Amino acid sequence: MAAPLRIQSDWAQALSCREYVWDYVSQSSISGIFAAGCFLIKRITCLDISSGGGLGVSSSTDGSMKIWQASNGELRRVLEGHVFDVNCCRFFPSGLVVLSGGMDAQLKIWSAEDASCVVTFKGHKGGILDTAIVDRGRNVVSGSRDGTARLWDCGRSSCLGVIADCGSSINGVAVGAADNSINLGSPEQMPSEREVGTESKMLLLAREDKKLQCLGLQSRQPVFLFVGSDAFNCCTFLSGFLLLAGTQDGNIYQLDVRSPRAPVQVIHRSGAPVLSLLSFRDGFIASQGDGSCFIVQQDLDYVIELTGADCDPVFKVATWEKQIYTCCRDGLVRRYQLSDL
To answer: Where are the WD repeats (predicted)?
Structure first.
């Protein structure tokens, strides 16, 4: 592979004693491919962008979340109610509702319009580390340090069941539609009528005990169990049969669900933990604990690196159309805008 294309930015000019600053920087030295911006907030753990691209949400170690304007970083709402760190946050498909999970073992649903907490789910015995939304959002999935993955009914604020009990922390979860060639098994009991959209779905679990587990979301039946080189931190689906999972020792495994015994490929760029993976166009975006964040595209013979984080871990990546957002331990949300790729 040829030398990577590095996107450089001078973020020091964006730092200020104010809580929120947006600085938009044109990258003319890269032939107009990228423009980038960032705004300063407290240390953040996760972020997401609404389906329409108008709003962003970010979670913090101070127990709060913030809703901001994606175009300029302007603060719109502050969501408060968790105790301790908020580990994960994401918008529902409507773009008007937010799902969050925290170290207080609570899963919450919020209105992005008035900052009210409309639902609180309780049942986990340890901090919630990741979540996934099933279809349009009548059901959601959570993964916890207590080793369980649970399916929740948003309408009735109740737990529909423990999908998996791993005996080891679940660091990442992902839900994806299964290819017709994949046998997900049949449920041992009739699914609840409150389960909506779980049929033909796979649930992927990135586990602390070096195992990557896949099972049928509705059937609860195992599909495969893959043992990696170290703890799995994150996972995502690329298609109905291809997936990615990242480990603590820097490996990115690409697996085919139809033949999961041996990986399709293993990508290793550094020994730093892989913290975030996101399907992007015909490739993916990955971020690591050494501050690296990069785009891999099948039709390009080079890797595009998104720089600016220095050596601080980049915890999460989100996209909307040609805009890429990252959050980092240095307290910055960075925006990279692709004008051409």
So the answer is: 44-78, 79-120, 121-153
Residue 22 in this model has a pLDDT that exceeds 70: no
CATH 2.130.10.10 boundaries in the chain: 104-337
Structure tokens at 181: 């060639």
In one letter, which amino acid is 264? V
pLDDT of residue 301: 72
Residues 174, 68: Cα–Cα separation, whole Å: 25
In this prediction, residues 84-107 reach a mean pLDDT of 97
Enumerate residues 6+ apart whose C-beta is below 8 A from 264.
Answer: 242, 254, 255, 256
For 105-155, write each residue's pLDDT tens digit: 999 999 999 999 999 999 999 999 999 999 999 999 999 999 999 999 999
The β-bridge relationship of strands 332-338 and 293-297 is unpaired
Q: For 241, which DSSP code? A: S
What does the alpha-carbon distance between residue 91 and residue 98 come to, in Å, rounded to a whole number? Answer: 4
DSSP 3-state helix, strand, coil percentages of the chain (rounded to 5)? 0, 50, 45
User: In this model, does residue 92 exceed pLDDT 80?
Assistant: yes
What does the alpha-carbon distance between residue 246 and residue 271 come to, in Å, rounded to a whole number?
Answer: 11
CA-to-CA distance for 333 and 47, rounded, in angstroms?
A: 9
pLDDT digits (tens, 9 = 90+) for 267-300: 999 999 999 999 999 899 999 999 999 999 877 6
Report residue 28: phi and psi, to 5°: -65, -25
Element of type H or E holding 199: none
* 304-306 and 5-7 strand pairing: parallel
In angstroms, the Cα distances linking 9 to 35, 36, 262, 284, 305 are: 9, 8, 39, 22, 11
CB burial of residue 186 (10 Å; 0-12, 13-18, 19+) = exposed
* Nearest CA-CA partner of 222 in 231, 213, 230: 213
